[in-house]
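Appendix B, record 7
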Amino acid sequence: MDSLDLAASVGSADPAVGLRAVASLRRLAEQLESLQVDRARDLGWSWTQIATELGVSKQAVHQKHGTRRIEKTRGN
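Structure tokens (predicted):
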């Protein structure tokens, strides 16, 4: 689904179409967050700096992304 279809689907009168669009947006937001967290860490940002920009606690962002980054560096 391209971005124009997605945007149209979010406002659909059909709840099934709208909810699928919301789920797609949620997946996209998660992927974008992971990408930006990786970029920030690669540039030397602290977990505190990242958490501040995301509006969450340092613990929350580290719990969500810290393990994923360790697995990524191990090649898993």
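Remarks on this record: Helices lie at 3-10, 15-42, 47-54, 58-74. The mean pLDDT is 89.
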